[in-house]
Amino acid sequence: MDSWCDVADAPSLSPGHCRTVEARGRRITLVCLEDGFHAVEDTCPHRGASMGSGFLDGCTLHCPLHGWAFDVRTGAGLTRPDKPLRSFPTRVLDGRVWIEVGTGTPEGAAP
Ligand code: FES
Fold first, then answer.
1. Ligand 1 atom index nearest CA of 51
2. How far lies 59's CA from each of 8, 17, 73, 93, in Å?
C-alpha cells in the first residue's frame, strides 16, 4: 500500500460530484460516479484550471475555464485527444477512498 494514499471519506462524495484532493503533494480530482470513484490529475492541460471545480455530465468532466472535456474513467481528452489528463487507480477500504499516486497511467493511456 506504499503508493496508495487515503484521500477522503467515501460517503462524503455522492454520485455525480467531484472535488479536488491532495495526495503526496499532488492535486487530484476525485470523481464519484454510479460505478464508483475515479481520479484524474487536477490541473487542466490547457491553462491550468482546477478540474475539481469543473462540471460533471455523466462520465464527462468539463473544465470550469474554457470547457475542455475529459472522460474521467480514463483521463482521455474529448476536446483535444492529444491533451489528456493523467488518471489514477482508486479503491475503497473501510469506508475510505484511496488513490494510487505512484503508478498513474501515463497521460490518458487506458488503465
Ligand atoms: S484551462 Fe481548462 S479548458 Fe482552458
1. 2
2. 20, 10, 7, 23
**Ligand 1: residue whose CA is nearest its atom 4:** 66
One-letter amino acid for residue 3 of the chain: S
| CB-defined site of ligand 1, < 6 Å | 44, 46-47, 49, 63, 65-68
Q: How many domains are there within the chain?
A: 1
Query: Looking at residue 88, what DSSP letter applies?
Result: E
- The three-state secondary structure class of 11 is helix
CB 78 within 8 A of CB 54: no
Dump pLDDT digits (tens) for 21-44.
999 999 999 999 999 999 999 999
* CATH code for the domain of 74: 2.102.10.10
Taking the whole predicted model, whether its pTM rises above 0.85 is answered as: yes
CA angle 96, 19, 38 (to 5 degrees): 60
The 10s digit of each residue's pLDDT in 57-89 is 999 999 999 999 999 999 999 999 999 999 999
